[in-house]
Each structure stands twice: as structure tokens, then as C-alpha cells.
Amino acid sequence: MARVSSEKLGTDSIGKLLVSQAVPASIGILVMSINVLVDSIFVGNWIGSIAIAAINVVLPVSFFIGALGMAIGIGGSSIISRALGAGNKLKALNTFGNQISLTVLITIFMVILGLTFVDSLIPAFGGKGAIFEPAKTYYVIVLYGVPILALNMMGSSVIRAEGKPKFAMVAMIIPSIGNLLMDYVFINVLDMGMVGAAWATTISYALCFSYIFYFFFSGKSELRPSWNYLGFNLNILKEIGSLGFVTLARQAVVSIIYLLMNTILFGLGGEAMVAVYAIVGRMLMFALFPVFGVTQGFLPIAGFNHGAEKYDRVKESIYTAVKYASILATVVFLGLMIFPAEITSLFLSSREGMSQVDLEMNAFVLANTPSAMRWVFAATPIIALQLIGAAYFQAIGKAIPAFLLTLSRQGFFFIPLILILPNYLGALGVWISFPIADVLATIVTGLYLRKEIQRCK
Fold first, then answer.
1. Would 6 be classed as within a structural domain?
2. How far apart are alpha carbons 268 and 373 in whole angstroms?
3. How far apart are CA 145 and CA 162, in angstroms?
4. Residue 354: is its pLDDT beyond 70?
5. How many domains does the chain have?
6. Per-residue pLDDT tens for 126-143?
7. Does residue 5 belong to any structural domain of this protein?
8. Is the entire prediction scored with pTM above 0.85?
């Protein structure tokens, strides 16, 4: 019964498959993004703008460790999709077992390092001045749950690789809803402040893990974990590593960008400017959910059909994914260009009895965030090609081009731009670096993808 599910990736129409894969992925990403968004709104309204900035400082560390699970998940899932397409279930099982062992080992080690150097890491990521103490409070609690987050990210990728996107969607929805409910109880009802926000996040990771554990051990999966497959296989580890490194490098660059952005913006405008980026950063996670959903839905389709040597279907999946994602990206672009002030105001508290410092910070954030948001999302309609193109090479197991194209936007173009332009243009130089990097990376990806499609027979 389960086997039929993965076989559909090679037989159903591409348009139907992409919708069936992308819609649950988009819904899951949407709910997860709404969780991050509403979490920020709750924190901003119930604790204050400094708290939003504090959480933004912690994100690079927790994201990077969580991204280890995502990297292992996506790298291994590429192998699993192709193995299932080729009818090699044993390789798929061995890959999944290696993913589990690798995730547990690496993330626990990273948490130990993260806790050891807590007082150095937080200032390094922009947690200075009034931001330091709330950031440290949040960081220590959340870090204990990050290995569970990594297992969740890995498990969700494997579920999608099996062709079961609805289960992956539920795995993303459960912690999001749980986090929001616990935010309300811990922060608003019990008045636990940053401690409450941190525990709400950590417990939500555990809820997600419970569901993923249920999925793999209840007979709903083709890849039931077993002790027999947990031992490391060097060849599989190399393949997971080469493909997973692409995702890990992307997330590492995201963490580096947070570090640079927080540091640069703190120098340009203090805590208030960091809060501006915190809101824009939340919208970067939230607004593009349909585009990311199409990208996630595209991966198992391209990987399975490439493994089955159905290259016409591979090409069709690329064209269809780019078309769908571009339409959705344009809709997102229009919304952000029209309503940036209204979006910004959602994050700011209007409660009575606010201090003069908080009132001044809110006024600064409201005055500066809308223009920053417009610049950051200015090239949104064209980024679908870059995201789908980079994902394609990862799906078919070509690690080097996947690595280079994935890093082109944020690593090769964006980081140099934010190190140079703010010296001449101030904060504007930071914001215009986003669309310039998007345009350059899309051109490079488009040219490279075109050559690869021409070779694909």
C-alpha cells in the first residue's frame, strides 16, 4: 500500500503531482511561518521591542544547529527518492538509519559547544547592550531542544521523499499551533516573559517529534527505523554529506548573514535598527512560503524521475515548478509593496503605560521598516528560477553545482554587498543589497540550468 504512494511520483501528471506535493508543503511552511510571525507579534506586544531583537540574535545559533538536521534530511532524502525510483528499498532503509545516527551525534555535540561558549556567542551575533540578558535567557532554554528540532527537520524531509507530503504538513503544523497556545499561556497568562517564550518553543519541538515518531513506527511509512540500519555506512555517509553540505552551507550562510546584519545595523542605529531587521527577517521567512512550498514539492518529483531515468518528466517538472513559483512570488511581491506599514504595525505594542524608551523605539521602527521591506523584496518576482534551479541539482545528486548555485545569492553576492555598500549609503546600502543579489544570482542560475537541461536526455 505504501509502495504505491512513492510510485505515483513516476506516473501521475507533473502538474497534478506538483500541486499534491506543493500544497501540503506550502501549508506546512505557512503555518510554521505564521507561528514565527505571531510569536514575534506576541513577544513584541507582551514583552517589548527589545525582546524581538533578542530572539533575532538567538536565531542564527538555533537555526544553524537545527539546519544540521535539515541538511542531513535533505541530503539523505535525495538518495532515498532516487533509491525508491530505482526500486532499491534496502539502500533507502540504510540511508534513513544513517540519517538518524548522524543527526543525534552531531547535534548533541553542537549543543555542548553552544552552551560552553554562550557568553561569547551572543555578543558576537549582535546581542549587545540591553539585548544581551533577554537573549541569553531565551538562548539557553531553546538550545536544549534544538537536537529534537534537528530530528524533526530530518524526519520531515524523509516523509516528503516517500511521497507523503500531507504527513509532513501535519508534522509542521503541530508544533506551530502548540507554540502559539503555549505562548499565550506562558507569556500572557503566567507572565513568564522571555522564559515563557523559550519554553513554548522548546516544548513545541517535542510535540512535533512525538508525531514523527508515531508516523515511522505505526506502519504508515515504507522506512520503519530498525537497529539493523543505524550503523554507519561510509559510502552512504559520503553521499549524505556531499548533498547535505549544500543545505548546511546555505543555513550557515544565513547564520553568518544574521551575525553581519545585526552587527552592521547595531552600528548604524542601535537596538532599534536591529528590531527593524527582526521584522523584515520574519517577513523573509513568512511571505515566501508558497515559493518554498513549490520548491519542497519539486524535490521528490525530480529526484524520483531522475532515478527512474524518465528525463522528459524531469524537464517538465522544472518548467512547471518555475512557472507556478513565479506566479506565487509575484502575488507576494504585490502584497508587500502595497501594505508594508500595516504589516509593520502588527509587530509593535500599543499597550498603555509604555516607557518613553519603548515609545521612541516603536516610532523609529514604524518609520524605517516599510521602506526597508520594499527594498528587500524588490526582486521577489524573479527568485523562483534561482530557488528551483539550485534545488534541481540537489535533487539529482549533483552536489557541486547545487552547492555553488545555492550559495550564489546569499554567499557570493549578498555578503560582499552588505560589507561594501553600507560604507557609502548607510542603512540604504544594507537594504538594496538584497535585490541586487537576487538579480545576479538568478541570472547565473538561469544560464547554468539551461545548459543542464540541454544535456538531459
1. no
2. 17
3. 26
4. no
5. 1
6. 667 777 888 888 888 888
7. no
8. no
